[in-house]
Design a protein that fits this description.
This protein has 186 residues and is of the alpha+beta class. 17% of the residues lie in helices and 34% in strands. It is built from three helices and eight strands; from the N terminus they run ββααββαββββ. The chain is elongated, with a radius of gyration of 19 Å. The protein starts with 7 loop residues before the first strand and ends with a strand. Its EC number is 4.2.1.59. One of its GO terms (biological process) is fatty acid biosynthetic process.
Length: 186
């Protein structure tokens, strides 16, 4: 966090409470904060993601792809906002992104890899066949940016089976990881 910017303290009754800037501390301002939060350029913006994946609101859980290596791996981003429909019930007084939706978001990043050349011609569907060794490390909450990496570990074209290893981070801290299996159907 920028030394001149606002500090945040945890409270039992509120998620985060901004404290006033201490006397003698220089005000950073919106321009400085905006530069500090600069987003990486998208390799695939949301429009391209929608061309590749069949998912749509409220189930499209990838906002953009920031790294892509055809047939091998991708890094996708999901901005988690307080307006997400699932926060209405999970949990209203302490909103946490459901773990199954974190895994689904990662699977969609996997779909970005599998639903393009050289794995497929983009035709057909991509379904979960299994997920193993999933571990959650910390909650994902409104305001977080979930950065997910999916790496192809095996592809059996004859059977249409794809295996991937996935890991996701928030603020550089690992939040979830696991091994994924998918079935490609034409």
């Amino acid at each position: 966090m920028h030394a001149a910017g606002p500090s945040f303290a945890r409270s039992a009754t509120r998620m985060a409470v901004a404290e006033p800037v201490a006397e003698g501390t220089e005000w950073a301002g919106a321009e400085t904060w905006s530069a500090a939060f600069k987003e990486p350029d998208a390799v695939f913006p949301i429009e391209r993601v929608k061309e590749i994946l069949p998912h749509r609101y409220p189930f499209l859980l990838v906002d953009k792809v920031i790294e892509f290596e055809a047939g091998k791996r991708a890094v996708g981003v999901k901005k988690v906002t307080a307006n997400e429909e699932f926060f209405n019930g999970h949990f209203p007084s302490r909103p946490i992104m459901p773990g199954v939706l974190q895994v689904e978001a990662m699977a969609q990043v996997g779909g970005i890899v599998a639903l393009q050349e050289p794995i497929t011609d983009g035709k057909g569907d991509f379904f979960f066949a299994g997920v193993n060794n999933v571990k959650w490390r910390r909650p994902v909450v409104p305001g977080d940016t979930l950065v997910m990496e999916m790496v192809l570990t095996a592809f059996k074209a004859k059977f249409g089976l794809v295996k991937m290893k996935g890991i996701a981070y928030v603020d550089g801290q690992k939040v979830v990881e696991g091994d994924f299996q998918f079935a490609m159907v034409k």
